[in-house]
Amino acid sequence: MANKINKSSISSSQHLLTKRSTIFWIINSCLIFFFLFMPFQSGLLNGSQPNYEIDILYSFIIGAILLLCLGIYMYRSRRASLVHNPFRYVIWSIPLIYCISMIGAVSAHYSYIEFMIWIFYAILFMTAYHLLRQSDGQQIAFYIYMGSASVIVLFGMMNWFGNASLWGLFPWEVYPDAAMPSSGDVRLTSVFQYANTYAAYLIAFLFACLFTIVVSKNKYVVLFASFMLVPALISFILTLSRGGWTTFPVILLFVLPLLTFSKQIQALFQLILALIASVIMLPSMNSYGLQLQQDHTQGTALLAWIILLGGSLVTAVIAFAFQKYVATRLEQKLQSFNKRKLVMFLIPMLGIVAGIAGAFLLLGNTGFTKLLPASIGDRIENINFNQHSVLERGTFYEDALSIWKDYPIDGAGGGAWQALYQQYQNNPYSSTQVHSFFIQMLVEVGALGMLALFLTLAIVYYYFFKSYLKKTDDEKLMPSIWYIISTAILIHSVLDFNMSYVYLGALVFFSLGAMLSSSEAKTFLWQDKVLSNKLTIVIPAIFIVGAAVYLIMTLVNISGYHSFNTVQKSIQEQNVQQSIEQLDNAISRNGDPEYIDYKLELLTRTYESTLEEQYAIEVQEILDKMSKQEPYYENFIFRQLELNRLLGNDEESAIVSKIAINKYPWEIDYYVEFAKTQFRRAVTAIGEDDLQLANEYLQSIFEIRDVVTAKALELELLPDAQLQGREFGITAKLAMPIGQAFFVLGDYVQAASYLALSWDPAFDDNDDVMAALYYSAVLQKLNQSNEEINNTIFAAFPDTQEDLSAILDGLIGTLPINN
Fold first, then answer.
1. What is the Cα–Cα distance from 45 to 54, expressed in whole angstroms?
2. Residue whose C-alpha is closest to residue 185's, from 378, 367, 435
């Protein structure tokens, strides 16, 4: 007979995650360190570069410690922990699918890193779930979030006022763009160095402050939240984020229904109060900020801070007085009205009407925006669907869906968009992010991954709302904060890559775990049997062993990074063999393709200087191996072309260039390389008197020209507001081999028209001299003056004038191959 649950033993076990517990303080210390310190590592952007990756790896150490603490807690209180919501484990389905997607991933390394990141998210989710079931945990987590968000906001304003170093105490060398120049404006970006993501973060913080003001009973907390509301709102405006401005009212509609009708009135009063104060202060904040970034003076900076902090303090006092003296009476008068069904949706509905009116006021020809600083007013007036950021996002999404169609079930693995987008892109833009979290995830883990994500979100939000409606007002504050954070960032992430910042991703999944922790699940049918079974040790054991494995994997990767860093710093002080051995050590521990590319560069340079065949052989062996592990890492194509050039293997170069053109149809450099290779092959064939073969090579150059011309015409069909992206068409570099081909064939008029494009008197490219000589020769053949060109060439290279003159005479004397 199954043993019944011993509720007293379950209750007594809860002390393991309260203030009396060592585990409790270890977990909170890790959370304080992560949420307060790690955002200053560029927000932990997953930027697919070693200098970004190392900070993410250090965060995984925190994750391993948290997972170990969870394992110990769940082992020592396994009977208590098992009566919790069993659906909390659904979060692990997402990293599981990322693991599955690694099997056929287009990038071995970046799919591995993404898998590790999602394990970290799952750990934060589980940590929040267990920690915030205790009131002590709820309170400390709330203070950690509000404190860290306030630091980020104030740090942003420090940068806006021209100096965040605290009088030289912190150099902040990684934050040159915390206030970022953009298209003639300056946009506030704080630690994220990306205005749109900072706007999403600020939306969450703004609404968290609003809820705290109207719900919290702690007067000091209310004062603090009221004080931070104005700096956060001013910062939000200074991001100049049109996406943030347009999603703000949408998120407000998702947030307000959590409050009773009377508290919605209070929240709107506080928001309008802060908005009025912000608009009053905005002209001086804007002008002082722009001035201080150009010329920082202590007196002006002090004045700017006095205005900001003074205005915030006055607003906080008014907000506090309203809550103390007006809100209480408002609650009493509307007490019966609050209980009516659906009344909480009344103000959101009115908000939609107000939003339409506000949009007309701001976007219509009303002159209202003239009251705002010019940079902000112009930005608002330019909000429409026919602007480059909107059109480009539409292109990204369309191209991403094309990728997904080829990898529909489990996706192409982590980092797939960055690896594949150039093969599918509609025009030659450069973007390593899809600018939509959900679509990027669809590309990475396909339908299975999206199913796991939406299942997780559905479970969290279902249980959250189910329990939220039963809570008293005093019990609603903490759950509401985590709902606001996750909802605000996820909604904004539909249109941007906020979740590529691991810090924000961790915050979102911590918030989701916290939301689930506020709910209660019914006892499941087989609970008694599970609690009485020895299998209760399985999950704690998996967590403890998993923590050890996760930590080891992380430390190995960190060790590889530092080995690579050591090689880079000491490359001039040691011989090639020592550097290669250290690189091999780094690569064996961390297979970042950038490490491998650095080794290829070192081997190639060594072969070029020594001509020792062993180095060329090793380069080719590595490239053959990488063609399977990292087939879309573009630098490896350049390394292969470079090796072929050094080996004089033009036939292989032509093959590689053609393959590259198929993979990267909008990368003009591969067309150039193919054309240059085919011209060299034509010259070789002429020297061997195989004129038919030479003609075939030359004709292939014209075919490539026609392909490029046709594709360039496609770009003319883009909407006027959409940017083309990278240069594409008959560029100066491509014009040279085309002109040379016409020159060899004796069509000097055509040759001159193309070689004129490649003529560059700056001579800042290796091919510029030969292009100039060909252009001079073709002008001579057309009986046109080439004296100015010759004088320019010989003046630029006086030491080799005789050699250059001999080459020029040889070209002038060359007869067309068709004669």
1. 11
2. 378
The length of the chain in residues reads 819
How far does CA 367 lie from the centroid of its chain?
Answer: 37
Average pLDDT over residues 6-21: 53
Q: Answer whether residue 154 shows pLDDT above 70.
A: yes
Please tell me whether the overall predicted TM-score, pTM, comes out greater than 0.85 for this model.
Answer: yes
For the purposes of burial, counting CB atoms within 10 Å of the CB of 615, is it exposed (0-12), middle (13-18) or buried (19 or more)?
buried
Distance CA 579, CA 174 (A): 28
Radius of gyration of the chain, Cα coordinates, nearest whole angstrom: 32
Looking at residues 173-191, what average pLDDT do you find? 80
Strand, helix or coil at 133?
coil
**Using the 8-state DSSP alphabet, how is residue 4 labeled?**
P
Instruction: Looking at 38-163, list the stretches that DSSP marks H as alpha helix, in order from N- to C-terminal side.
Output: 50-76, 78-82, 93-101, 108-131, 135-160
Residues 307/310/316/322 CA torsion (nearest 10 deg):
-100
Helix (H, G, I), strand (E, B) or coil at 174: coil
Token digits of residue 85 = 């919501």
Give every CB contact of residue 168 below 8 A, 6+ residues apart in sequence.
Answer: none
Nearest to 683 by CA among 793, 814, 801: 814
Quote the CA–CA distance of 418 and 379 in Å, as a whole number.
30
Tell me, what DSSP letter sits at residue 630? S
The residue type at 387: Q
Task: Kindly state the average pLDDT of the residues 10-23.
Answer: 61
Residue 679's pLDDT is what?
95
Amino acid at position 409, single letter: I
Is there a contact between 144 and 31 (Cβ–Cβ < 8 Å)? Answer: yes
Phi and psi (nearest 5°) for 674? -65, -45
Q: Is the distance from CB of 228 to CB of 275 less than 8 angstroms?
A: no
Residue that wins the pLDDT comparison between 658 and 327 = 658
Question: Residue 531 pairs with which residues in a beta bridge?
Answer: none
Cα-based angle 150, 155, 157 (whole degrees, multiple of 5): 100
Q: Is 523 exposed, middle or buried (0-12, 13-18, 19+ CB in 10 A)?
A: exposed
pLDDT of residue 377 exceeding 80 = no
Return the H-helix or E-strand segment holding 181. strand 179-182
Token code pair at residue 150: 């306030």
- pLDDT at residue 13, rounded to an integer: 44
pLDDT in tens, 409-444: 999 999 999 999 999 999 998 889 999 999 999 999
pLDDT at 176: 75
Residue 767 has φ and ψ, to the nearest 5°, of: -90, -5
Report how far residue 97's alpha carbon sits from residue 167's, in angstroms, rounded to the nearest whole number. Answer: 48
Section 88-104 average pLDDT: 94
Upper half-sphere CA count for residue 333 (Cβ side, 13 Å): 8
pLDDT in tens, 163-181: 777 656 666 655 778 888 8
**Beta carbons within 8 Å of 8's beta carbon, 6+ residues apart:** none
Nearest CA to 343 out of 437, 431, 251, 256 is that of: 256
| Three-class SS state of 180 | strand
Whose tokens are 């299998």? That residue is 535
What is the tens place of the pLDDT at every residue in 537-549?
888 899 999 999 9
Alpha-carbon span 293 to 295, nearest angstrom: 6
Does the pLDDT at position 26 exceed 70?
yes
Per-residue model confidence as pLDDT tens digits over 772-818: 999 999 999 898 988 888 888 888 888 888 888 898 888 888 888 87
Nearest-5° angle of CA 744, CA 749, CA 750? 70
